[in-house]
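Response to reviewer comment R2.3. The reviewers asked that we include at least one raw input/output pair. We reproduce the pair for exo-alpha-sialidase here without editing.
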Amino acid sequence: MRASVPLTAVATAALLLATVTGAAPTAAAADRNPDPGAAHLVRVTHGDPYADCTIGAISPDSVVYPGSEVEPYLSVDPHDPKRVVTVYQQDRWNDGGARGLVASWSTDGRTFHRSTLPFSMCAPGGADFERATDPWVSTGPDGTVYAGGEGVDFVKSTRTGLLAATSHDGGRTWQNTTTTHVDEEPFFNDKPSLTADPVRKGTAYQVWNRLDNDPPGPGSLDGPGYISLTRDGGRTWSRARKFVDTAAVPDTQTIGHLIVVDRRTGTLYDFFDRITYSADLGTVVEARYQVVTSTDAGETWSAPVTVARDTSVPEVDPNDPAKPLRAASTLPSPAVDPRTGTLYMAYEGADFTGGRFDSIQLVRSTDGGRTWGAPELISPGNVPAFSPSIAVDERGTVALTYYDLRFLEPGDTTTLPTAYQLATLPHGDVRRRTERRISRVFDWLEAPFAGGYFLGDYQGLVADGKGVRAVLTETHSDARLNRTDVYTAALRTD
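Raw output as returned:
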């Protein structure tokens, strides 16, 4: 889920909540090669395990989009890149979250089977939450798969809980379902992610921001970063604690916390966006991406260092700005070069368009995050681009995926032709950048509407040996009971 400029922190966060649902076992996969020049994609979503669930309506205006799968993420086994686990929201609601979260797993990278994540009441044996959101997945060096998400209640009161589960059979089954933290309003937990430590077996980190707007009014918003961690393979998780403070500046929150780990040194880097609002919480005064560092496996953290200004602008249909889109503004996508330790962060920004629309921008640090270079433009400069994901392969090639609107014709206000692109930068050299399309062209306006036409606040990309593997969402035209599906592909970076 994601909160933007809050009228109250809880109300706005509830409106912009994003969720995914779990599913019943077994589903076959269908290969497809959508367009000449596009990647060979495999569909990972089949059927709707929560189709019969009647839980979760907030009001008569609540609309659920059955058969819709959005906001995917993925992980691969570090010892076998064909062992893939994807997670996603199932049956998105218009007013926050989804019926539940689902995982799809594979042992060959091509045929995917389904398992339900136990994070909502729609899932068999699921946690005691009406809806779920923010799916995340990460695989440790011993093959343990960690899944994270958030459970949400809206009907009786606003209650949010951070959830985690583990799998020791590659995503077929899930154990150790744990509520790592739970709050009722005025607190609202937002946008968690989960990272397995690649060098410390049994260790994983869940991070998020915790909004507090009590009592509502000027000077009352606070949104620090919180962390919970496991040292025993997910059997137990530590008590949640604050690790990024925002109290010094009134009406400030963090969002988009995401940890990456330097495998050479074991150093942890947590990236996030820090946003300060006006006293009436109506406008953004300042927004900047920052990073904090831990050299002791998450026990202590450095002071924040600014990575880049957040210059993103509202995401809209450029031919009809009254149609809001929902993508990855305010959410950083970081990565670390496994050979050199160079840090990268991709994000949406408007530095290269004079504030007219967002492009995909990249910044880097070669000194462990102490200093950062100027932004570099990655996507074509003449069209809006959204939702960057970044990974660095074993040879140091930087890969970025994003979707853009290059196929949109002037004056077209009935469709929004969209496609995913893959950009590769050998050794991070923007001058050697190449790009190719990896999806078919699809209509974004067929997506569920949830605070904007919604494909997800993020899509996934991970290093896959000498290449990368992507997971992404596409829409279907005239398919009201199956608006979206999730696809994956292993992509070469040479």
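The longest strand covers residues 80-92. Residues 9-15 form the longest helix (7 residues). Further pairs are available on request from the corresponding author.
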